[in-house]
Amino acid sequence: MAQKPATRSIGIGDTAPPLKVAKWLKGTPVKSLGKGKIHVVEFWATWCGPCKVSIPHLTELAHKYKGKATFTGVSVWEHHAPGDVSYLKNVDSFVKEMGEKMDYNIAAEGTEGAMAASWMTAAGQDGIPTAFVIDPKGKIAWIGHPMDGLDEAVGKMIAGKLDVKAEAEKARKQKEENAKRELMYAPLKAKLVAKDHRGAVEEVDKLIAAHPEMKNQFAMFRFMEQLKFDEAAAQKTAAELGDGMLKDSAEGLNQIAWTLVDEKTGVKNLDTALALRLATRAADLTKHEEPNILDTLAVAYFRAGQMDEALATEKKAVSIAEGTKEFDAASLKEMKARLEQYTKAKG
């Protein structure tokens, strides 16, 4: 989706751009910033997972600082065709569904993307959620992730103790670090854009050789990329991860095991013994009480031809899932479909 170019760059200490939104969806419309009042302007989107996680936290802060700071969330970068405003209904439905969990002013930008351009792009911010703290004079005093320092920044601003110069220096250093990181990752990104999976793994190995501390950071990514061109090497990596850094991580073991056994992944020469070992370890770590992990174990049994174990494990997974409050309905539906499949297969 094309975005309107930013007319100027902004940063900490600069005057905040105006709030030119397409529609106010909740709360009290904010006509202007500054004028003796502290504002928090946060950018989010309905499709953004981290944004959804941060919404309850923003509500807590809005309540905590009620009467002292005004919180406003602006939806940006929503998916839509040029000039198509139907996305506004989707944003409105999302806000209504969130209800009291999203209890602060909410607005959505227009189709031209002016808010994202004049705020996010102008400030060099390319990820959401991102929050801006605006001081009583309408100046930007802080920029960052809502879950990382916003509470402290607002509290200090209210108390008159926020060191804007220090925040600006911190932002400058962070920008420099981001630029260095961008340069460092450029070769890897090029391989990913070209869908050169082997080349991507080679670039990751170069990064790890130069920065050994990155090994764990890239472990899962490296495994997933290897799987796209060398199943044997990928499964060897999976075994190493299962016996090493992920040995005591039920979530990590389950992720690898599911990736291997899921037919959508398309592993042609599956090492069923490895998949079972990883899935069993994950189940043991969770005392065979986590339905998603049991589901993975059931699929691993099925792929290994152990029908009795597959059926019994899937039954237990479904039973626990049905008794779990707010368990994902789509996941439960898939589990039940597998249970039916295994029942028929066993005859």
Automatic annotation (TrEMBL):
GO molecular function per UniProt: antioxidant activity; isomerase activity; oxidoreductase activity
UniProt-listed Gene3D superfamilies: Glutaredoxin, Tetratricopeptide repeat domain
Residue ranges of every copy of the Thioredoxin domain listed in the record: 10-163
InterPro entries: AhpC/TSA, Thioredoxin-like_sf, Thioredoxin_CS, Thioredoxin_domain, Thioredoxin_ResA/DsbE_sf, TPR-like_helical_dom_sf
GO BP, sorted A to Z: response to stress
Keyword Repressor attached: no
Keyword field contains ATP-binding: no
PROSITE patterns, A to Z: THIOREDOXIN_1, THIOREDOXIN_2
Name of the protein in question: Thiol-disulfide isomerase-like thioredoxin
Pfam short name (any one): AhpC-TSA
Keyword line: Isomerase
